């Protein structure tokens, strides 16, 4: 009982510190220790926080670690799931915070918007953004999920969505979780195939973004494959 009181007293002090100043002044291990309060009960989470940071290298790396790696580290199912929830919730929060209710696409900042869509995604995903004749967003979502190193651009699904939403133009994006934000030969071929398929139904492919970590490369703006976007 005395040990429980010690832990509870420490946790109360940390919570008070957080409520007064947020996470300002918290070191990474202190922030992680505080977060672990909510999935590790009546134990000293400071040591666990230090061990997690030592094992994975940084706070973001802990959250980005695969579920199996966290389980192999020794965390329970609920503890590993809780940590995996953090980047997913961060993506939902940021996406909602910056949601444009008028749905007018800001081409100057679209790279930042696309980056937000890939926060916490460990495997390759394909994002489709569809626009109407006025350039307003009519659909934006993940249309394909793959493995850590591979996914396919689902051409038929992209075309079906474009028809369903009566789109006039489209932007696609996919991420390279374990690589660079540079297109492979397969990426360029797949982009050409999507562009050709969309053109048959009167939809213009405006761009294809490649995402890796905090980097986002526009194929249309980079000049890597200018012919793909000349319609």
Structure report:
- This protein is of the alpha+beta class and 231 residues long.
- It folds into two domains: 2-95, no CATH class; 103-229, 3-Layer(aba) Sandwich (Cytidine Deaminase, domain 2), CATH 3.40.140.10.
- 48% of the residues lie in helices and 16% in strands.
- The protein has ten helices and five strands.
- The chain has helices at 2-21, 28-36, 45-56, 59-64, 67-73, 77-97, 110-117, 155-164, 185-199, 219-222, and strands at residues 125-131, 137-145, 169-175, 204-212, 215-218.
- A five-stranded mixed sheet has the order 2-1-3-4-5, sandwiched between helices.
- α9 links the parallel β3 and β4 (204-212).
- α5 packs antiparallel against α6 and α8 runs parallel beside α9.
- The chain is elongated and about 70 Å long.
- The mean pLDDT is 87.
Helices, strands, pairings?
Elements: H1 2-21, H2 28-36, H3 45-56, H4 59-64, H5 67-73, H6 77-97, H7 110-117, E1 125-131, E2 137-145, H8 155-164, E3 169-175, H9 185-199, E4 204-212, E5 215-218, H10 219-222
Parallel strand pairs: 3-4
Antiparallel strand pairs: 1-2, 1-3, 4-5
Structural class estimated from helices and strands: alpha+beta
Number of domains: 2
Q: Under CATH, the topology of the largest domain is which?
A: Cytidine Deaminase, domain 2
What is the radius of gyration?
22 Å
User: How many distinct beta strands?
Assistant: 5
Please state the overall shape, judged from the principal axes of the Cα atoms.
Answer: elongated
CATH C-level class of the largest domain is Alpha Beta
Uncertain segments are none
Helix content: 40-55%
Structure annotation, total helices: 10
